[in-house]
UniProtKB/TrEMBL annotation:
It comes from Catharus ustulatus (Russet-backed thrush). The keyword Signal applies. Residues 24-56 form the LRRNT domain. It is found in: Cell membrane. This is Leucine rich repeat containing 52. It comes from the Eukaryota. The chain crosses the membrane at residues 244-272. The gene is LRRC52.
């Protein structure tokens, strides 16, 4: 190596040394190539010093209650995030803005309360989403997964859900597996459309025997095929109070219209008879006047 090349080689070695020293691993976590595993370390907060090239981050079985959007956005290459069995429960809207490459996301066994359009709308590559075992999850906004068109596996089992709009899952073109078991489904006429979609869909429903109605009492513990049959009968044939009122009003209007028509027809007949009689009398008088 010539003397002129030595400064460059020393500089490169120095930079490589700095880079190697700069690669760190979060405290109490284990790191290997592109993966950080912090499972069961009783972490209270999102770990710091996560390598920026991390592709897989596992935070399962900790006490993390908040995911900072800014810190997550530094992990732009993240494709796998496992946060199951934590204390996440606050609003997650816009939390995942900076991790658009995410393919796998597990938020099961947390304290989520709702899912809105802004929760996962930036995850355009998402394939697997697990939000099961969130007992406080009571609402998934209509169209919440409208941007997640690559979603194939969605699990919302064992939550506090009582209703799910059909379009929320029906419009996912790649959906193949949907977990719905052990929820508090309210099987009324508004839910009939969703049950009918389940029966006709090609989507696979694991643990289908435990997808049952919770309310009303008459359908409690009834599986969806049987619930569909009963709801078809009750919802499509049963008349409610407002229906009877409507029918009474229609009947009254028909009766009133018939009465008015008959009255008008009677008046017209009387007028015609009177006019005809008057015409006959005038003709008789004319004949008498013209007689010799």
């Amino acid at each position: 190596m010539s003397p002129s090349d030595r400064p460059w080689s020393l500089s490169i070695m120095f930079l490589l040394g700095m880079a190697s020293e700069g690669i760190s691993c979060p405290s109490r976590c284990s790191c290997q190539y592109l993966e950080v595993n912090c499972t069961g370390q009783q972490l209270q907060e999102f770990p710091v010093d996560i390598p920026l090239d991390t592709r897989q981050l596992i935070l399962a079985a900790n006490n993390v209650s908040y995911l900072p959007a800014v810190e997550l956005s530094f992990l732009a290459d993240l494709v796998y995030l496992d946060c199951r069995k934590n204390l996440l429960g606050d609003d997650l809207d816009f939390t995942f803005v900076g991790v658009a490459k995410l393919v796998y996301l597990d938020l099961s066994f947390n304290n989520l309360t709702q899912v809105t359009f802004s929760t996962f709308s930036h995850l355009l590559s998402l394939v697997v989403l697990k939000i099961s075992d969130n007992p406080n999850l009571v609402a998934i906004e209509k169209g919440a997964f409208a941007n997640n068109t690559w979603l194939r596996h969605l699990d919302v089992s064992r939550t506090g859900l009582t209703f799910l709009d059909t379009s929320t899952v029906r419009d996912l073109p790649n959906l193949r597996l949907l977990g719905l078991s052990d929820n508090l489904w309210h099987c009324n006429c508004s839910f009939l459309d969703f049950i009918t979609w389940m029966m006709e869909s090609d989507v696979h429903f694991p643990d289908a025997d435990n997808i049952t109605c919770y309310t009303p009492a008459g359908l409690h513990a009834l599986r969806m095929p049987a619930a569909e049959a009963q709801l078809h009968f009750s919802c499509l044939t049963q008349l409610y109070k407002q229906d009877y009122v409507f029918l009474c009003l229609v009947g009254f209007c028909i009766f009133l219209a018939g009465t008015m028509a008959a009255w008008l027809a009677g008046i017209c007949a009387v007028i015609y008879e009177a006019h005809a009689s008057k015409g006959e009398e005038e003709e008789e008088e004319e004949e008498e006047d013209t007689a010799p």
